[in-house]
């Protein structure tokens, strides 16, 4: 077998794409070097025949964005899109006659809201400059004049959980980034699932309880207009909070928590069933104490 | 303004792409009709100038897979990938000089495991034919012979939560699909977050408790080899369950639940802060009773 620089291997005088086996009877091709679309079409056709002969199942082709000129060739060969990130596109093909068992694409964004409560029953709140477009009158040319309106509202720190990031770490990170406050993660009080957050994707939002380890607020980001410790009762009494059920419930959870009459889910480090992939199991540990979760 | 069939509009003799405004000061172009790449390049350049002049921010281009020949043109114009589904690719561009505030791509797959317990303290279990490749010795030609091994293990029904699907509905659906049993959703006992489930994406797995509404098992899917009601203690005593912490914890949760000494999170229908986007808020309702969650 001869291996060429551009990721092509030659097998009995037939050039094939270099591929690695995945754990499910399929192959993964990670294209890295530029190739002319016609040359890619030829080597892809030969490779597909080879993999079919081998009894392979799913075929994955990862194309970095700089090899965008090969996307059309792959689609013409029968591949379809599986997922994409800013710098690459993953295409896939299923060789067997049977229905495919390919893993589904990621379907949910995950967000966190951090309730940081100090010993004086004060909660850490922010005013964020949020931008809402206020579309003007459409002109006869179809143009729209937009003016942007900044509204202020005292709210808890929130943010998005990054791919590969633990929920508890995301909550602590967001608080630190937005206010400079160091925290200890306590528990998840509740969470909410909703749909169509953007382009059909769903979302999960975790309401977390944290204990502050520092107290001097230092605003860290441009979009934050103000940050302060506010007495919990004062926050809860705000008209906007009172009339917005989701915010009202959040403050009720928080009040119940401070009265020690509410138990949420605590994180326990665990590995997966086959011993790999560390992660956290969140459960009601007041009702069920698990001795040393990890091996 | 003149509108052409292929989604191009003419504005003061300059052809532009037809776009709709999004809620964040950007525009969305949904390409539907075929166009030559060169024509697309020309109209895209003119459109970008127009949107920049208008003070637009994010520009989204949704290309169905049959318009794959336009992907390269968009990337050459500075667009990058945002996300993809089997039948389309979403590209994006950020016009302002400031850092982009575009929404992140979905980062998590969401799964459910369903503990269905009947009045006789029996739990609904399955044997699934799971396929693990057992790679043979690599030949001198780089070929690998694969043989597939089927292993059996009594497990609870599990599955993936579809985009746009409620967790509680996914749990009930999986049980119905796999065993024919109708159920009522009770609560979420615990959940686990882990990472790198495939291609860098993270996953959330919710362990749900359900009550059966019917009792005659009817296997529904090919990959299910057997299904039965098994006494909970017998299931918990299996060596594989005992030595696998995550399964052991699950059975402990289940035993605690049957002894009425464990409270998980119950779903409450709620709308989002601005009154739209229905969803479910999951919380410990034994500790905090929320009157009529929805307006």
From TrEMBL, chains A, B:
<dbReference type="GO" id="GO:0035529">
    <property type="term" value="F:NADH pyrophosphatase activity"/>
</dbReference>
<dbReference type="Pfam" id="PF18290">
    <property type="entry name" value="Nudix_hydro"/>
</dbReference>
<protein>
    <recommendedName>
        <fullName>Nudix hydrolase domain-containing protein</fullName>
    </recommendedName>
</protein>
<dbReference type="Pfam" id="PF00293">
    <property type="entry name" value="NUDIX"/>
</dbReference>
<dbReference type="InterPro" id="IPR020476">
    <property type="entry name" value="Nudix_hydrolase"/>
</dbReference>
<dbReference type="InterPro" id="IPR000086">
    <property type="entry name" value="NUDIX_hydrolase_dom"/>
</dbReference>
<keyword id="KW-0479">Metal-binding</keyword>
<dbReference type="InterPro" id="IPR040618">
    <property type="entry name" value="Pre-Nudix"/>
</dbReference>
<dbReference type="GO" id="GO:0046872">
    <property type="term" value="F:metal ion binding"/>
</dbReference>
<dbReference type="InterPro" id="IPR003293">
    <property type="entry name" value="Nudix_hydrolase6-like"/>
</dbReference>
<dbReference type="GO" id="GO:0051287">
    <property type="term" value="F:NAD binding"/>
</dbReference>
<feature type="domain" description="Nudix hydrolase">
    <location>
        <begin position="107"/>
        <end position="254"/>
    </location>
</feature>
<dbReference type="InterPro" id="IPR020084">
    <property type="entry name" value="NUDIX_hydrolase_CS"/>
</dbReference>
<comment type="similarity">
    <text>Belongs to the Nudix hydrolase family.</text>
</comment>
<dbReference type="GO" id="GO:0047631">
    <property type="term" value="F:ADP-ribose diphosphatase activity"/>
</dbReference>
<dbReference type="InterPro" id="IPR015797">
    <property type="entry name" value="NUDIX_hydrolase-like_dom_sf"/>
</dbReference>
<keyword id="KW-0378">Hydrolase</keyword>
């Amino acid at each position: 077998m001869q291996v060429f620089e551009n990721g092509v291997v030659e097998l009995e005088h037939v050039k094939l794409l270099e591929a690695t086996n995945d754990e499910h009877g399929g192959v993964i091709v990670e294209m890295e070097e530029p190739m002319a679309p016609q040359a890619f079409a030829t080597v892809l056709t030969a490779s597909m025949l080879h993999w079919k002969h081998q009894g392979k199942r799913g075929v994955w082709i990862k194309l970095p964005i700089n090899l965008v000129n090969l996307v059309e060739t792959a689609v013409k060969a029968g591949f379809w899109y599986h997922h994409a990130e800013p710098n690459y596109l993953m295409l896939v093909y299923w060789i067997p006659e049977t229905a495919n068992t390919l893993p589904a694409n990621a379907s949910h964004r995950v967000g966190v809201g951090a309730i940081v409560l100090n010993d004086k029953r004060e909660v850490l709140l922010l005013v964020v400059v949020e931008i809402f477009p206020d579309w003007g009158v459409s002109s006869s040319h179809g143009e729209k004049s937009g003016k942007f309106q900044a509204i202020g509202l005292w709210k808890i720190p929130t943010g998005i959980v990054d791919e590969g990031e633990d929920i508890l770490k995301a909550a602590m990170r967001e608080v630190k980034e937005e206010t400079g406050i160091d925290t200890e993660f306590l528990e998840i009080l509740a969470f909410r699932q909703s749909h169509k957050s953007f382009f059909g994707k769903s979302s999960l939002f975790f309401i977390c309880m944290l204990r502050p380890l520092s107290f001097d607020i230092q605003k860290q980001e441009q979009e934050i207009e103000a940050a302060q410790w506010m007495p919990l009762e004062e926050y809860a009494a705000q008209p906007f909070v009172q009339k917005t059920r989701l915010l009202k419930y959040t403050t009720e959870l928080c009040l119940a928590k401070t009265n020690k009459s509410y138990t949420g889910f605590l994180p326990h480090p665990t590995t997966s069933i086959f011993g790999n992939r560390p992660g956290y199991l969140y459960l009601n540990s007041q009702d069920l104490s698990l001795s040393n979760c990890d091996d």
